[in-house]
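Hi there,

I know you've been waiting on this one. I reran it after we fixed the sequence typo, so this is the corrected version. Both the input and the resulting structure follow.
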Amino acid sequence: MHALSAALVLLAAAAGEPVKIGVYGPFTGGSAGMGVSMRNGVRLAADEINASGGVLGRKVELVERDDEAKNEKGGQIMQELLEKERVVAVLGPINTGVADAALRYPNEKKVPELVNVSAGAKVNELFDVYGKDNYVFRIAAGDLIQSEMIVSEAVQRRGLKKPALLCDDTNYGQNGRAKMEKALEKRGVKAVYVGKFKLKDTDMTAQLQDARGAGADVLLVYGIGPELAAVANSMERIGWRVPMIGSWTLSMSAFINNAGKNGNGATMPQTFIEAGASTPKQLAFLEAYWKKFNEKPIAVAVAAAQGYDSMYLIKMAIEQAGSTEGPKIKAALENLLQTYQGVTGTYTKPFSPTDHEAVKAEHVVMGVVKDGVVTPPAK
């Protein structure tokens, strides 16, 4: 009788405890624009959820950690979130290297992680390692989708057949390079030049002169905002004008602001374009975000929108599962019964037991930088 009473007391206490969700990304350092925008999107969604009654009648509590875009911190933070904080799900991260260092832990602890920005993080590839016990999901345009769209834009839509590839030397940049080379090969095209650069490099003159010397008619790039701006500025410096098409990160304010007029025409895959918002969900999201964070335009709108949607997908899964147990949340994610009308798109059964990628090609469009703003593709 005493044991039963104690169990009931514990259950009653648990019922009132918050639902703890881990959120990690770079909130300081060179990648902070992406991390803070993602975190803000998650915070906005969590505030809305709590204002409408929470999850299973309990408040959502975000447990946030700054990984500073340092690979070694990925594993440390993930272990802390899972073992010390006992979060029921994790949202993030931003950087591929950080993800690679961390993703074994949610699978070992059977706690779902919804990757909401990292395009290079292993997701479906983890089925080969963990079988059906893969607890990693993604709502972002992965490298495979991005590379196909980048190459298709250059080769098929624009008819350019002498691409130069210029990518940063991180896991992210080199994953993108490899996938772009495969996408080119499928179309019978080979890059006339392949180069790379390091984070914090500010002068890409040598690489660009080599690319121009090789006869390149388009520059395909993979990196993050500050260095991509250095590419655009270096192109202007040497007077070389060919189209720049690349990773979604060409939409970052760190690219747009640093490149200025030299960024005009840069083209990239986008799951959400702030200037092209049209659905009631998108417009409501923007109004709420601008008001809450006093930021217009959003520093990295894609990261903010995907962060927001990731929180709502986790909420839906927990409510469908009727539980905060990891295996039950995972099973619900793999068979969501409700359609989610999100900021980045409409998702009907976004995941399955064999496919943990929510974003498909139909959720992505090519944005273009024009006078400091990412604009939707011309109709």
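Quick highlight: The radius of gyration is 21 Å.

Best,
R. S.
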